[in-house]
Every structure is written in C-alpha cells, then in structure tokens.
Design brief:
Helix content is 16%, strand content 25%.
Amino acid sequence: MLCITGVAHTIPPATVAFLMRSRLETPLTSPTPAPSTATCQFCSRIRLGDKGGPARRVRALTTPAPDWLGYALGLAGPIGARDRMTASYDVDLTHLPLDAYATYPHRGIMSAIEVVGPHGLPHRARAARIVAAVASAAMVVSPAPALASSTRAPRPPRALTVDGRLAPIGVDDVAPDFAWQLAPGPRGSVQSAYRVVVSRRSSTAPARGDLVWDSGRVASRQQAFVPYRGPALLSDARYWWTVRIWDAGGRASPFATPVRFDTGLRDPDWRAAWIRRASAGVAYMSASQQAELWINGTRVAQGPSFAYPDDGYYLATDVTLALRSGVANAIGALYHWSGTGKGRPASEPGVIVQVSVEYGDGTRQLVTTDGSWRVQRAPWLPAPPRNQDSGDFVEALDGRAWPLGWDQPGFDDAAWQVPTVVGRHPAPPFTHLTAQRGRIVETPVRPVAFTRTASGAFVADFGRVIAAVTAITFHRGVAGRAISLRAGYLLDEQGDVSTSRGTQGTDMSTRYVERAGEQTFRTFSYLGFRYLQVDAPGEVLAAGDVVAYARHSDVPDEHAASFSSSDPTLDAVWELARHSALFASQEQFIDTPTREKGPFLRDAFNESETAMRAFGEQNLTRQVLLEFARSQSRYWPDGRLNAVYPAGQGKRDIPDYTEIYPEWVWQYYENTGDRGLLDQLYPVLVNIADYVARYVDPTTGLVTDLAGGGDEDYKFGIVDWPPAMRYGYDVSTAGDGASALATLNQVSGGRMDLGIGRGDSARRVLGKGPTTMATLEEASDGGRKR
C-alpha cells in the first residue's frame, strides 16, 4: 500500500540549513570537496619487466607490500609488516615462476604489466594464483617510473573521510573513525605520525572557542579507522576536521583542507513523533517500510533499508538547496508498506521526519511529524503479489486520482485525514534507530534500441539486465485509458517481452490508468530486467519517452578495479561479475532483484567480497555483517545465524551459512583494517565456534551431523541445495569437515588473534575434541602449509 503524507511550513531567510533523513534550508556555505584523483594508498601497483630484459624488478606502491605479492613471486612469505601506509618496495623477479605468464601464451613474455587493486590489507595468494589477484585488479601496459628523491616536506593528506564517507551527514557514532590518503610523494615516502584537529569552524588553525579536539602528534602509521577521542559530540551539529602528517624524516605536512561532518540523532534526541494512517511514512528520515521524501516538488531522499521495528535505520540528508528562504515550503512523503517477505520482517506501518534548519544568527527551527500533518491513501489499486517470495505486489496506479501538486506549497489538503500519532520516538514498536551510512543511488538509462512490434506495442531494450524503476511519459493521455507494461529478461520469437522465459516465476507486469493530457508514470518498486514493453499506448512513443532508473547502493568507485586481457570471454566474465555484484547491492545484499530480493547470508558473502575488491565498498558490508550478528541474539542462543536477515520468515538457518560467517568477517578486516568491528563481532564468532565444536566427532575430528537446517532440504546443513538438486552427489557424510574445522580455526587458530589478541577465549573451544591445531591449520588452508 502507498500513502502520501505532507505538511507545509513557512521558513524565514537563512544562511545555513541542513536536514537529516529529511530536508533542510537555504544553500550551504561550504562547498563539497571534489573527489580526489590521487592514487589510493591501499592500491598496489606491480610492474613486471621483460623476462629476458634487464628490468627484472617489482615496485609495490603500498605499505606493506600486499601479502599475495610475496607469495606470487615465489618468496618465503609476505613483504613487510602489516601496516596501512604508503611505501615502495623493490623485489627481485628472479623467483617469478614461469606459470605466472601461462595465461598469455599469445603474447609470450609480456614486456610490462601494471596491476591496480582497490583495497587496503589485500588477500593472500600464491604464485599459481597471481592471475586471481589480477582478476580483482587492473592490467595496463605502463613504463617503469623514474627514481625520485626529495628532502621537501610532504604534501597535505587528501581524500578525508569519516566512517568511510566523504563529508557525511547523520554520523551517530560516539567515536567516529577518521581516514585519509597520503598525497603522491617521492619513492619510499611513509607516514610516521599524524595530528587530527576537530573544530566547529572550517579552519586549519581554529580559535580556542571553536576547537573541539586536538589529538596532538601521534606516532603512528595508521591512516584509517583512527577514532575520535575528544569530548562528547553534540547531536544534530556540524563539525570540521583536518589532519597533518609527518614523514619518516620528521618533516610535517601542511594541514589538509578541512572537511565537514554532521552528527545525527540518537534515540533521546528525536523531537518528532511517529505517525500512521492505516499506513503512513517519512523520516530525518525513517519509515516502516520505505518512503520517498519530497520538498517543494523535488524528491530528496528514499529509503531506509528494511529492518525490524525495534532495530531500524534513519537517513540524514542535506536539503539546503531544496528549501526556499522566506516563503512557504512543502514537505511530504510518498510512503510504501507491502507486508512481510524475504528481507522484509514483520512490522507495523509508520513514518517519522525531523527537519532541522539553522539560521545565520545561530537560531534553529525544527519541523517534525506530529498531529498537524495530514495523510491520504495514494491511488494505487488492489493487485496480486508478484510472487510468493519477495513481498512485492504488482503495481497498478490510477493516474486520474493522483493529487497533482501535493508536494508543492499551497496545496489544499483540508480533505486529507489526521494521522494516528503513535508517540515521540522512541515509541513502541519503533524503539531504536541507527544512522544508515549508505544509501540508494539512481542513474537514468536510455534504451539502446526501441522497436515496435506487429501488435503495436513498443519494446525498449536497455542493453543488459539492470535493477531499476521505470518512468514513461505519455504526451496525449486519455482519461481512463488503461496501459499495460511488461518487464522481462528475454524476448519471444515475435519480438515481444516473454512472460514465460526468464521471469523467475514472477509477474513482472505493471498497470497504469491515464488521466487526460501529458503525464509521466513512474513505478515505486524496482525489478531486475533488460526489456520493457508498453502495450497499446494510444500514441506513438519515442525512445526518449522511456527511461529506466538503474539503482544500487552507493559505492566509492564503480570502476575501482578493472580487468583486461586478449581473451574476450575472460573480459566478459569479469564485467559480468562486476555488474552482478553492483546490482546485487541494494538495501542489503540480495540474491536476485527479481524474485526473492532476499538477503541470504551465503549470497551476501560472495557479493560483498566482490564489492569490496571491485568497488572499494565498505559500509554496506559493515551494515550487513552487523545485521547477521544481531540475528544470533534475536533467534539463536546456541550460536547459529539466520540464513536470511532481516526476514519475514522469522527464525530459519542453514548451517553452511553460519560456518562461512567468520571468514566473511576476516575478509572484511583484511580489506578495510577495521579493528573496531572485528572486536565488536568477536563474541558472535566465539558463539559460532562453540556451536560447531559441539558436533566434532571425537574419533575422526570431523563434523558430519551439524544440527540445524530445519526440514529435510537443509538438514545437517552440509550444502546449500535441497536433495533434489544435488545431482546424485553424496554430501551426507564427512564432506563438511574441512569447512567446519576452518570455522573453528578462523576464530581460534590465530588469524583473528592477529587482529584483536583474544584468541585464548576461543581456543578453549578446542578442548572439546582431540583435533589438533595443526589439523585445523591445514583444514583452513586447503591442506597447504604456509
């Protein structure tokens, strides 16, 4: 069900205005910092000289050099210590195994290769896996740079972020994490110390009254996840921060250009009340389930991620440019509630908005949801569910009943209803909100082909499958004319969009009833599709009348990693994996954007690993790791995790999913260096190790009957496939031993001890069976000794 709710307010002239999860006022005075073009300090560059020529060296512009570099070159182990800093290394290529070139027989020995990876602490790999390392990086021909040396002071740091975001709004951590990148410098440049300064004004030398925290000079090479350690930050407030570094010679850089961050709201800080119709919605902004926030005719936010009502998210959005100074402003929301489904837990409809406006004289105005708002059911018509999995319904909208101008000042809402006010937040069942770090972004996609079929229908081909909402403009609408739309993956023999092939058992149709005149119909919910068919529109449509708004979670760089080779098939496989991971990144990581839209743990693990390496993604992975950790406390006192979370199905596990979670946590740490989250999740990992250890056979040391999985399809949880889809393979005996023991080893065998030094608590788990640490080490490394 969709609902529109809104309120109009007159806002006097302002010089600075900002809004969280909703909108704020007047143009901001601080410019948004331009994206840095510097090479990421977490990137690795490798140049391989001609095997027969003199340049047989490798330069790795990362400190330390990535672990896999040492192994890939046939060395005894990693190069350098595990520090997050920039440095240079020369490595003799004498030991480079010939099979590293085996994938390029058409070119013989390559004259030069440059490999660029997007992340920090890279994954391990051996010589035989150098191609795998390249697959998550970029390959281009590049000459070796000239040697450089300098006694000059280092340049200011760049790419300053807070909690992994540039100039974020809605920071609700009590101790947010700072990060920066070193500016390009002479070969061998390293950071030896840093100084972070936080203030209330944009200045590299803030006055005493503006200074909030000065870390002083800290001897450390750490450049990411540097925690704030000053006095408590105010809620709903703007701060600025900067940083300077010292190099190995003790030379100090200038301070970086200050970057802002705005704090969000914690549960006691809300002044707004949750309101309802039979459904309703908007927030600072939070909604159950989702909403679009509109100001003066402009959509300024959408979301948040699906969540349980007692553990929700809110979005914080700068709406300065959407607000008008000195005149009436209209603030409203288009709210959506569809009930439970995979990824959509049981809840109740509700919405909350808090708009904060700051004026030049320091005064502040709050616009909040309360009993003065008005609500009205939007003109979506009754329709069947798309399938039995996602919780989505076929969209059917009556354009004749659309309240034109509802999102503009002056609209007459006297006939709309008074909302039911649940109460000021926190109000049961909405008892806890956390700032959502990421958000959905949209990109308009035009058809690459636009054809008309023999039946008179128009078919738009967007070139490839995308997850998107659609918008269609009709220029000569006739009141009451019904238009049918059909999305799909494939065409039938007549050139129409197929309703039987490639649909994943999903009704991918949409219905729209026109009003008179020109109009644009836009769907609210997204689908995965390549083709869109418009049946009998009653007018000739052009390609420009049909737009797909491709949507996914925001990532730092969609092309942070790339791959190219002489084999078009390999190039296509890389692009398919990159593209799939991008559009699987939605409110959570999902298994498919068409049928289930379900945040399955094992699917999310695979998608997250790709996203971290291919896009430099961090925040969605962090969010989803925390969600699955919370599933343990919500549903599984024995240490298991839910297979899908959040979920309308409630309690459900697949043991194979639980087992992979420790590896996922470790891969997140390896890619980001976030020790704080590793520490936070460690008790969850110990519970998982306890769960698995209880089912270690004392005679074989293997796990064969791991409890869980519910019905026969997933009983004992060996693999993620029902018996009918196992194609005769016997997976009912000892096949789970290696993965289960690897789970134990992840927590207790020393890898996570390196991160947080608490291995003894988990190592005690091993006392429950005769399995030795050596066996666990072999199992976790595929039988190979490091």
